[in-house]
Amino acid sequence: MRRLDAAFWRRSFGPAYGLLLVSFLVFGSLASWPFVLSAVLAVAGATLASLVRGLLPASSGFLGLLPALGVLAILAVETPVGVVPAVVAGATGLALLFWCAEEPGRAPGALRRGLGALAIPALGFALALLSADLLPSGLGTVGVAVALLLFSLAAVVLLLASPRSFDRDPSASS
Amino acid sequence: MPLFLAFPLLLAPVAAGLVGPRTSPRVVLDGTVGGSDRSVRLDIRLTPPVDVRPESLDVRYPVPAGVEEVHPPVVGRDGPSLRVQLDWRLPEPTLLTVPTPTVTWKDPLGLVERSTVLEAPRLYIERYPPELQRAGAVRLRRTLALPGETRSRAVGEAGEFFGIRDAAPGDPPRRINWRASARAGRRLANEYALDRTGDLVILLDTRPTNLGPDVDGRLLAVSRGAAFGLAEAFLRDKSRVGVATYGEFLHAVPLASGRTQRFRIRELLLRTELSTAPGPAERCAVALRRYYPAQTTTVVLSPLASETQHHLVAHVRRRGFPTVVLSPSYLAVQSVEALASPEDEALAQRYTRLRRREEVTRMWQDAPVVDWEEFWSLAGFVHFLRRPSVRERGVA
Predict the structure, then answer these.
(1) What ipTM, to 2 d.p.?
(2) Cβ-Cβ contacts under 8 Å, B12 against chain A
């Protein structure tokens, strides 16, 4: 357990905490129960997650994800299906990823490293959303399938373009 | 329930494997060791290949034993490199190699980690009391069969007048040319054409004592620092210096001079560790004669904490080596047990001090001993070496 000094607050709360809190609140506002309950859950989930991550040693910091995931699951269960909830849910997922990737106490690149982790998931999410809404069937599952297919193709092309990935071990005769 | 919520979370692990380098990236490390006396400042630069962001490297610097960390490492980006500044403090003089850091590449989510291939030069921390810088001017016994002075091409602190140069901060007042300084309006110092002064053997006793491995280890680290400082000072003034360590067997660097000798001595001292089995004192003295000629001035670095360490000095002296003992005192590193009252503690400390004084006094029958308790100062030892009449008492 670490001490509650200035360094603790610095490594616990960064810009990603604010983004996570806002996205939880927006997502909670779409739930079928009163907004006050959603707001309490959102604040508790985001704050508790950041506090746990800051308090525990770096090797156990991942446990901070549990409160955030729990609140997200509760809010998702209570949110109806639709285009707007789908967009907000995806954005909330991205905010959670950003919060996971950010290390507020780390220097340098605490924020920039976090943003770097979002590029591919955000692209995949955008593809899936556009496919789901623009395809004639209008089914979300079809959009997800199309995005996954495109993503797999991109990954195969990327791996084939870098042969170093396949010959990592030096040959016995070299 | 909106299905899209899970989409970014499911995609993230796959993306983590794709964003980083495909193989272990090659990272080039270069750095400098700065600071003076007790403080050590390490300025390290880590340069990864162009396709790896410097801030994605995770650097862990182990703090070596006997070194205190003043504050956590300061990490910052400096162009294409990652700059790590470490601030350490040395409680005692020492000689050690800066440990190689562990550098890994991690994706921002911490899901993928790749080790790096580190190209790092060895960096050394060499800290010893500043007075040793002047120890090289001491006139040593000559053991070469060449009559008269042997003129060296180097300039230094003693010999015939060679020229005048700007004074450096460490120059003693006797080296300042006051008349020339008054004329020039700035401090000028004399330089002399050096003569080869003589030969010196430094012997470290690395055998274990009943003080325990912790205290023995700290005293050995202090001895290592002092041995290196002493060797460096005499090598700078063109003397021939040899270093030997004795645990169970003797490990020796034969007498030689020059920069290569400095390197050899440093490598031997860095390899030296506390011996597990103590060898007999006679063996050391016999082996010493196989490497060094008799009548070579010998400085024995020994804590004198056991009877066998006392015997070593006597045996070395009887084999024909004029011996001076520099004894790092265990009182400076030994922790005193907490007793019932402060009076008891003061009494216990006084008793330990008296016992140490008695041991040192007894040792004077065999060789002159300098009791070294304040580890950052060797003024007393250097002053002692400069008095040949007293030093000669160590001759058999």
Answers:
(1) 0.73
(2) 97, 117, 121
